[in-house]
Design goal:
about 475 residues, alpha/beta, Alpha-D-Glucose-1,6-Bisphosphate, Chain A, domain 3, TATA-Binding Protein, 3 domains, 7-stranded mixed β-sheet, globular
């Protein structure tokens, strides 16, 4: 069985290959043994494998005595909100923006917050015991000790009611919006939200069939949305990802607006209203240098964290801040939510455009002048080998020294896929090496060096196994008559 571990956003892998029903069952048992709770909420996105894995996870939880409420298809932030509202832990079966063949399991503690790192470690340790046939677990429960699995498939309306309260009774009258739900978890809810507040909505990407989630649509592929915005002469377009926790936008001219620009716009708006706590916004190391320059010019402080909404949220809560997020469109309005919420982000953006009475393109004009940034994904056998790849890190240091303060170089393993992400920023006019050339050079080196390290590790493991077998054979005592 695959040795899956918690990444930046839960456990993720190819459904029925790496993330199997057997694994989900075992994880459910481990979670129930580690997190003391009478009830768990479990929801999912629209992937074909979702019901299979949801049933397995629920069975594991129930086998350890926990009751399970199956809430059906709901966006991840809706589960977080329900978790906070009911003060019970929750799980979501989703691989977010990944292709439909992948799936994942992400967990929220009671209160709607991501699990603490130490809790994830405890679950992993218990999971290892559950999966080890040599380890005897607790006595199986029986009779009334077994948890019940019930269903509540009508909670979307309550979630929408909560969202509409975020704009304090204002409406979206007069706005025409194209909404792309990525054929994902927001498909049944997103258009309804904006229509209920008076907007004219053109809905696309809202016919999930189990395999079309994120396929040429949503926040990972915004071309269709941009075309629809221009064709319908819409004021803006909103693109969700598969589980609805992030959002990118398109302005009325069809230009993509990424998370950096959205966060900058929200930061200025909150600051003007006196609601930007600490006059500070939280972003990750992936945020474009142009964002930092824009905030500095407007006397707004920037706090930087590692990649992942867990780190953003931790920084927000540590200093009592109001706004943070990622370039990918995962944006947290801490006064309103415990996690990124694409539907909420779209609502706040539409409300801002309606209040300002100006086109989104005009509001963004000159706000963030992005430094050229290149992001390459390098597929590798084992991303953890990057840490010990001294040749790679030496090259990174050399490239950074050459760029000095005119750019940045960042390498990191993905927390959700077997990838190394290579990010390079280089200001226009940088001599000798633009961002593209540096990124390509490092990506090639990463691919080669990590392959070499992987081969060496495999050979070492094989030699160790052979030696262990030889030692075992030589230690056998044969008694002769």
């Amino acid at each position: 069985m695959a040795n899956l571990r918690f990444g930046t956003d839960g456990v993720r892998g190819v459904a029925n290959v790496e993330l199997t029903p057997e694994f989900a069952l075992a994880l459910g048992r481990a979670v129930a043994r580690t997190i003391t709770a009478a009830t768990f909420l479990v929801g999912r996105d629209t992937r074909r494998s979702g019901p299979m894995l949801q049933a397995a996870l629920a069975a594991g939880l129930a086998s350890e005595g926990a009751d399970v409420v199956d809430v059906g298809v709901l966006p991840t932030p809706a589960l977080a909100w329900l978790s906070a509202r009911r003060s019970v832990p929750a799980a979501v079966i989703s691989a977010s923006h990944n292709p439909f063949a992948d799936n994942g399991i992400k967990l929220f503690a009671a209160g709607g917050l991501k699990l603490a790192a130490e809790t994830e470690v405890a679950i992993e340790e218990e999971l290892a015991r559950v999966l080890d046939p040599e380890v005897k677990g607790p006595k199986p429960l029986e009779g009334h000790g077994v948890g019940r699995v019930t269903h509540e498939f009508d909670l979307g309306d309550a979630y929408l009611e909560y969202l509409t309260g975020a704009i304090d009774g204002r409406t979206l009258d007069g706005l025409r919006i194209v909404v792309d739900s990525a054929h994902g978890a927001g498909s049944a809810l997103a258009a309804r939200l904006y229509e209920s507040l008076g907007a004219e909505v053109i809905a696309i990407g809202n016919e999930p069939d189990g395999s079309n989630i994120n396929a040429g649509c949503g926040s990972t592929s915004t071309e269709t949305l941009a075309t629809a915005v221009v064709e319908h002469r819409a004021h803006l377009g909103l693109a969700l990802d598969g589980d609805g926790d992030r959002l990118l936008a398109v302005d009325g001219d069809g230009r993509l607006v990424d998370g950096d620009e959205l966060i900058a716009l929200f930061a200025l708006d909150l600051a003007e209203q006196g609601q930007l706590a600490g006059n500070t916004v939280v972003v990750t190391v992936m945020t474009n240098l142009g964002f930092r320059i824009a905030m500095d010019q407007r006397n707004i402080l920037v706090k930087e964290t590692p990649v992942g909404d867990r780190h953003v949220l931790s920084a927000l809560d540590k200093d009592g801040l109001a706004l943070g997020g990622e370039q990918s469109g995962h944006i947290i309005f801490r006064r309103l939510a415990t996690t990124g919420d694409g539907l909420l982000t779209g609502l706040v953006l539409a409300d801002l455009v309606a209040r300002q009475g100006r086109p989104l393109a005009e509001l963004l004009d000159g706000l963030v002048v992005q430094v050229p940034q290149v992001l390459l994904n390098v597929r590798v056998e084992d991303p953890s080998l990057l840490e010990g790849a001294e040749v790679v890190w030496g090259a990174v240091r050399e490239e950074q020294e050459n760029l000095a303060d005119r750019g940045r170089v960042l390498l990191r393993p993905s927390g959700t896929e077997p990838l190394i992400r290579v990010m390079v920023e280089a200001a226009e006019g940088t001599e000798n090496d633009p961002a593209e050339a540096i990124a390509q050079r490092l990506a090639t080196l990463v691919e080669y060096e990590l392959h070499q390290l992987s081969v060496a590790a495999s050979l070492a493991a094989a030699e160790a196994e052979a030696k262990e077998a030889d030692d075992s054979a030589s230690s056998v005592v044969v008694f002769e008559a």
